[in-house]
Amino acid sequence: MSIRKNPIYLLVLIIVALIIVIVYRYDQYVIKDNFILTAAVVCDPSNEGCFVADCDATDPACDVTPYKKVSILASEAPECVQEHSCETFQCVPGTSCKITYCSEASLEDGEICLLP
Hints:
Elements: H1 7-31, E1 36-42, E2 50-53, E3 67-73, H2 79-82, E4 98-100, E5 111-114
Antiparallel strand pairs: 1-3, 2-5, 3-4
């Protein structure tokens, strides 16, 4: 009996491949924190181009705190970025960190720029 003609071997092969993919992804995302973390950190509009939510300031759900966007590998991120509580944040040289300041090109729906 050939391996190609027996569907059990094919099923076992598919299950083993799925297990390998799941274990690899678990290792990358959970164990090694190998994913990009995007967070909003405090921004000083007197020195930097900052994002602000474009909403009614009288609405209690509206947060008009100026912010800049940070993208960094989760394994390299300080705890304050992961908790969205950084008062001051600078990228450390040699990391995958990227800070996005507000500009016309970086605006998304529901945001406005505060420029210095």
